Amino acid sequence: MMFEHDFAAREITAKIGCENHTAIIRLKKKYAETGRVEDNPRLDQSRMLNECNKHTIIRCLANGECLNAVQLIKSL
Fold first, then answer.
1. Which of 5, 14, 48, 51 sits most deeply, having the most CB atoms within 10 A of its CB?
2. Are 34 and 2 found together in one domain?
């Protein structure tokens, strides 16, 4: 890995064809701190719509009751 060989961020940017050297700086810092560059696993986010809301939206769209997002929100 180029991080291990102490390449400068701009050198790495030039070698891989990246336009933004600050992204390389952030990855290099992350690699120094954690030993890896992968993102941490994320917790499941709670759903904004429950099953009942999903069915209501589908019904409104299928029947033509709601034609845009504002009408859909008001129907919930």
1. 14
2. yes
Give the Å distances, CA to CA, from 44 to 37, 41, 47, 55: 21, 9, 9, 22
pTM, two decimals, is 0.45
User: Residue 68 gets which letter from DSSP?
Assistant: S
Tens of pLDDT, residue by residue over 8-36, are 888 888 888 877 888 888 888 888 888 88
For 29-43, the pLDDT digits (tens) are 888 888 888 877 777
CA distance 12 to 24: 7
- Segments forming the whole domain that contains residue 31: 1-38
Q: CA-to-CA distance for 26 and 17, rounded, in angstroms?
A: 17
Write the secondary structure of 7-59 as one string of H (helix), E (strand) and C (coil): CCHHHHHHHHCCCCHHHHHHHHHHHHHHCCCCCCCCCCCCCCCCHHHHHHHHH
